[in-house]
């Protein structure tokens, strides 16, 4: 590889990584080059980036240089950036969500009694994902927050109302109870 190509590659890496303009005197210091020689190489790089096949461009801003996307590519970049991130639900979150869906309105304490473990993280994530919301407070000592599902939950799971959720038949309920008893090694008192 020619020395000038190597310098161009290093400059490209620096400018790409920084994501903002870098003063030419700072680039010259890092590259251990004279400013005018560096400016000549940056100008050549700028011409290379002007080819129609390139999606990036190199711009000069008051003695600083920056790599950025070409205006022609903006619409494509915007489409990708504006797409919602895919959320994934862990088994713990799905378990917590199903308890909330079938038992709502339900408090965190009631969820934890069914699951047998703390559920703060799962509940908070489900609220963040807009699958669960606070419905108010239970009229008992401490007035705990009660949770229920949202319209987004219905949309994501393809049901028009909570009544459309599949029923859990008695055999499946009994099977779940037996598994829970076996795991704990003692009878438990949970009404489903």
Set out the fold topology.
Elements: H1 3-18, E1 22-23, H2 24-31, H3 35-49, E2 56-60, E3 64-69, H4 74-82, H5 91-103, E4 106-107, H6 108-115, H7 120-128, E5 132-137, E6 145-149, H8 151-157, H9 170-184
Antiparallel strand pairs: 1-3, 2-3, 4-6, 5-6
Structural write-up:
Strand 2 and strand 3 form a beta hairpin. The radius of gyration is 29 Å and the shape is elongated. The protein folds into two domains: 3-81, Orthogonal Bundle (Arc Repressor Mutant, subunit A), CATH 1.10.10.10; 91-184, Winged helix-like DNA-binding domain superfamily/Winged helix DNA-binding domain (Arc Repressor Mutant, subunit A). The chain is α+β, with helices and mostly antiparallel strands and 192 residues long. The strands form two sheets. It has a three-stranded antiparallel sheet. Strands 4-6-5 form a three-stranded antiparallel sheet. The mean pLDDT is 84. The protein has helices at residues 3-18, 24-31, 35-49, 74-82, 91-103, 108-115, 120-128, 151-157, 170-184, and strands spanning 22-23, 56-60, 64-69, 106-107, 132-137, 145-149. 52% of the residues lie in helices and 14% in strands.
